[in-house]
Design goal:
The complex is a heterodimer of chains A (about 190) and B (about 700).
Chain A (H helix, E strand, L loop, with lengths): L3 E6 L8 H9 L18 E9 L2 E9 L8 H5 L5 E3 L6 E3 L9 H5 L6 E3 L4 E3 L5 H4 L6 H5 L5 E5 H10 L3 E2 L8 E5 L4
Chain B lengths: L4 E6 L8 E7 L2 E7 L9 H4 L1 H5 L9 E3 L8 E3 L2 H17 L6 E4 L8 H9 L2 E3 L7 H11 L19 E5 L12 H10 L3 E5 L5 H5 L2 E3 L6 H14 L5 H7 L4 H9 L4 H8 L3 H13 L3 E5 L8 H14 L13 E2 L14 H4 L8 H4 L12 H6 L5 E5 L3 H4 L3 H8 L12 E6 L11 E4 L8 E4 L2 E2 L6 E4 L12 H12 L9 H10 L5 H6 L3 E2 L8 H5 L30 H4 L7 E6 L9 H4 L16 E3 L1 H7 L6 E5 L4 E8 L7 E5 L32 H4 L6 E7 L1
Parallel strand pairs in B: 6-7, 6-13, 8-9, 8-11, 9-10, 13-14, 14-15, 20-24, 21-23
Antiparallel strand pairs in B: 1-2, 2-3, 4-5, 4-15, 12-17, 16-18, 18-19, 20-25, 22-23, 22-25
The chains are: A alpha+beta (about 190), B alpha/beta (about 700).
GO molecular function (chain A): 4 iron, 4 sulfur cluster binding; metal ion binding
Protein name (chain A): 4Fe-4S ferredoxin
Pfam families (chain A): Fer4 (PF00037), Fer4_11 (PF13247)
Chain lengths: ~190, ~700
């Protein structure tokens, strides 16, 4: 199976959150009538870590979305069989129609990335823009990334890019299908 | 109108005016992204613009005040009624011979903005807000090497070579108040081997990507770079050939004499950057293939002319003018005038609307832009009677907002408001509208025509960009430009003889052989050509009076400003004992709280995609000394105001400084008014009441002041 993947370059991510909003727009996750801060669905979030002591500081930013796990615990947890890992792409998808709203996947997701639509009674999340990528387009977050910090492609090939550019895989974070890389510290 | 397509237009969630595409499906804007024709990026604020467009809270029809100013009570009226009120008052003002007591506070999108035209036709003043912003940089470059740089336009980072040096001094380009391509361009330059140095009291995302972060005492930039210049000049590390050829005879000798005592050691004591680091930075400048500098906050500390002057000198002595990776010298592509042209106010006769003890000395400056009205002062002294405002928010986002609000409710001896009419155009409920007599519902960038024309082209790669409606305008909204054209047609038909805004833009564009139609055909963008470098070599001269670079500003000898002073701004030199911290306001890319177009945006106040808090940030070293812990509620007090806020402790701020994100503290708008946050401008003094030497050194301490902090 080819695993489609996103590579997050920590040398370039500036934590700007443009991807979050573009993703919401594209997937229609903005309820303009009722949306309130803190209550909007989001398929991506930004994390960061500041280390060191003034004035010797370092800070990294990265994005977290569905990691499209090799053995997704959400699939195992789903009582209605609504979640599946696509054999062609490795993308983990939730079938909204089949979802019964049991919310078991939300509790089992180690990355806390599954959203729940209370009005429609279904779980939803990042599907790597399945409808775009099967037509040869990149996921929206990759396309709009302000700093060109995200790259999309086959996991195997992305790893080769990282190697060619002398970037190291952050192994602790990159346990699933989203790859996190950065240059070794000088 | 348009169906299911990507339509080129322009973003307006901040002043950068990035070229974008809007995806419209069945008359609804679904998504937006950068326009590839403009090397296409769009930031988080722009992306969230769709939320503003469809917000249920948008102002839908004209409103007239029914309560007292500040109460925020309004009733619905028609556009005709609104126009009648404005016309009647302005006619009355003219009949009284007080036309010049009318002003319009706005951000002109071009020198040919129809609002500006209206103000000139009415005999009023325009207030751009620029002089206390970055016009000092513009003036410094203009005085020194005669170029007309665009304000808010950064160096061309995409031309920085391997081995080049990029210096950001109090600049937050990852916050995208520049073109949204800038963060990528900086990172690309770094990836190909350029160095990034960030000078800022606060460690932010640029510093996180920098090769070197230099924390500096706010306002110390002029001193720091004078130290750098001293090292370069006294160690023969400057571009001698360039200076011999291009600098006005005598200026280098006088510069050498002036710089003699500006040693890194001495400058270090002012800016609190170690002398060894000043020397290290100087060596980096000497060795670099190119050097470019950008600054923003640091030119808003009250010594902007000094800092802009030093900045210009450094570029000159390192030979970094109009070279790849240096300071671009843009060209001007002139639009055609729409004749007859209404005359601008005679500032020499009417005087600058600027108050303060040094007014007479200030008048020596050759500002190209009509200076800011200090509205509060002008209301007090009776020189401001009618006030229109678009795309600005003085009740919250300008210095001395408390003083401003007070002025709006001042009454004369008869009990009438001293400010006779106050009109705002606004997309969303704003703090400022609470004090308005008329609130006119404005349009978003998805609903209006607008020619965005920057005559000094090319950092963005274009000179003109067309904002066009991609959907039918919602509600009864009308764009401010159209309102002023309509009022102009009523009052000054001779100056508003064109049919509408489109014909107006067509006439202007004819000056460069363009039209609205042609602009649309070209994807909404136009530029006169490709970027050229070292154009002064072809021309054989710089665009100054002498044709040479003029390092010494001889025209300011009478006010002692022919060379830049290294001193901190007055604001930071006094009151150290009583107010030991320097408060520095700052901003983030997630929010552009200054204008109502983005401050009430649910996506930008969401903790996931935006920012929902502005605690006061201090270094743990200071907190320990004061016995303050993370999350404690503290009072932050300046000489003019105080706020109560929770504390956030962070290593990312220089000890002795306090950081506060700009633009919070709204009470209008259900999203913007969330949380118990405070506005930094409650602490920053009203400019008109606190002008001492700032007038001579380039504006006010506009984003910073001294404060004390206690539980």
């Amino acid at each position: 199976m080819k695993q489609l993947s996103i590579m997050v370059d920590l040398d370039r991510c500036i934590g700007c959150k443009t991807c979050i909003v573009a993703c919401r727009n594209h997937h229609g996750l903005v309820d303009h009538e009722n949306a309130m801060p803190g209550e909007m669905s989001h398929y991506i979030r930004v994390e960061s870590e500041l280390t060191g002591t003034y004035p010797d500081l370092a800070e990294d930013f990265w994005v977290v979305m569905c990691q499209h796990c090799k053995k997704p615990p959400c699939i195992k947890a789903c009582p209605s069989g609504a979640i599946a890992k696509d054999a062609q792409t490795g993308i983990v998808r939730i079938d909204k129609e089949a979802c019964t709203g049991a919310k078991k996947c939300l509790a089992k997701c180690p990355y806390d990335v599954i959203q729940f639509d209370a009005a429609g009674n279904f779980a939803h999340k990042c599907d790597l823009c399945y409808d775009r990528v099967i037509h040869g387009l990149e996921p929206v977050c990759v396309e709009v990334c302000l700093a060109d910090a995200l790259r999309f492609g086959e996991k195997e090939i992305l790893l080769m890019h990282a190697e060619a550019e002398g970037k190291e895989l952050i192994k602790k974070r990159s346990t699933q299908s989203i790859l996190y890389v950065k240059s070794p510290r000088r | 109108m348009h169906r299911n397509e990507w339509i080129p237009t322009v973003c307006y969630q901040c002043k950068a005016e990035c070229a974008i595409l809007a995806r419209v499906e069945d008359g609804v804007v679904k998504e937006v992204k950068g326009n590839p024709l403009a090397r296409g990026k769009m930031c988080v604020k722009g992306m969230a613009g769709v939320t503003t467009l469809y917000s249920a809270e948008r102002l839908k029809y004209p409103l007239k005040r029914v309560g007292e100013r500040g109460e925020g009570r309004f009733e619905r009226i028609t556009w005709d009624e609104a126009l009648d009120i404005m016309e009647k008052k302005l006619r009355e003002l003219r009949e009284r011979g007080e036309a010049h007591t009318f002003t319009y506070s706005m951000f002109p999108h071009s020198t040919t903005d129809p609002k500006w035209r209206f103000v000139n036709a009415a005999g009023g003043f325009i207030s751009t807000g620029l002089p206390h912003c970055d016009s000092a940089k513009i003036m410094a470059h203009l005085h020194t090497f005669g170029c007309f740089p665009n304000h808010h336009i950064a160096p061309m980072y995409y031309t920085v070579p391997k081995g080049g040096l990029m210096i950001l001094s109090g600049r937050h380009p990852f916050g995208c108040l520049d073109d949204a391509c800038v963060p990528r361009d900086i990172l690309n330059a770094k990836a190909r081997g350029a160095k990034l140095v960030v000078i800022d009291p606060i460690f932010r995302s640029e510093a996180a990507k920098a090769d070197w972060w230099i924390p500096i005492k706010p306002g110390g930039d002029a001193a720091l770079f004078l130290g750098v210049c001293h090292y370069l000049l006294t160690n023969d590390l400057y571009d001698k050939a360039f200076c011999e050829k291009w600098v006005r005879p005598g200026d280098m000798d006088n510069l050498m004499a002036f710089i003699a005592d500006k040693t890194p050691e001495k400058m270090s004591r002012i800016c609190e950057v170690p002398a060894a680091d000043i020397v290290r930075l100087a060596k980096m400048c000497a060795e670099a293939k190119s050097v470019c500098i950008d600054a923003f906050k640091s030119i808003m500390y009250g010594n902007a002319m000094d800092w802009g002057h030093v900045w210009s000198i450094l570029l000159v002595i390192t030979g970094n003018l109009d070279n790849p990776g240096g300071q671009p010298l843009p060209e001007i592509a002139p639009m055609a005038p729409v004749t007859p042209v209404p005359p601008a106010p005679n500032l020499k006769e009417l005087g600058y609307h600027r108050t303060g003890p040094d007014k007479n000395r200030f008048d020596h400056y050759n500002f190209i832009l009509e200076p800011t009205w200090y509205a509060a002062q002008a209301v007090k002294d009776g020189t401001l009677k009618v006030f229109f405002a678009s795309e600005c928010n003085p009740a919250l986002s300008e210095m001395g907002s408390g003083e401003w609000r007070k002025a709006m409710t001042m009454r004369d001896e008869k009990g009438d408001y001293k400010l006779e009419l106050f009109v705002v155009t606004e997309i969303m409920p704003s703090e400022t509208m609470k004090w308005a007599d008329l609130v006119l519902p404005d349009q978003t960038n998805f609903e209006r025509w607008e020619l965005l024309y920057m005559p000094w082209w090319y950092n963005y790669g274009h000179t003109a960009a067309l904002c066009r409606p991609v959907i039918e305008p919602l509600h009864e909204t009308r764009h401010a430009n159209r309102v002023m054209i309509e009022l102009g047609k009523r009052m000054f038909p001779e100056y508003f003889a064109f049919k509408d805004d489109l014909e107006y833009y067509d006439i202007e564009l004819s000056g460069v052989g363009m039209s609205v139609e042609k602009l649309m055909d070209g994807g909404g963008l136009w530029s006169p050509g490709t970027a050229g470098f070292r154009k002064y070599e072809d021309a054989g001269k710089f665009n100054t009076a002498s044709g040479k670079i003029e390092l010494e500003w001889r025209m300011y000898a009478d006010i002692g400003q022919q060379w830049p002073s290294p001193e901190l701004p007055l604001e930071f030199r006094r009151g150290e004992k009583e107010f030991p911290f320097i408060l520095v306001n700052f901003r983030t890319i997630f929010l552009n709280n200054t204008g109502a177009w983005s401050q009430n945006n649910a996506q930008l106040r969401d903790p996931v995609s935006g920012l929902d808090a502005n605690p006061v940030v201090i270094n743990p070293i200071d907190a320990k000394r004061l016995g303050i812990a993370e999350g404690d509620m503290v009072t932050v007090a300046s000489s003019t105001g105080e706020v109560r806020l929770p504390v956030a402790l962070s290593q990312r701020i220089k000890p002795g400084c306090a950081g506060l994100i700009h633009g919070f503290g709204q009470t209008m708008g259900k999203v913007a008014a969330r949380g118990n946050w405070a506005g930094d401008n409650e602490l920053i003094a009203d400019a008109g009441s606190h002008l001492d030497e700032q007038d001579l050194r380039g504006g006010e301490a506009h984003v910073a002041t001294r404060v004390n902090i206690h539980k």
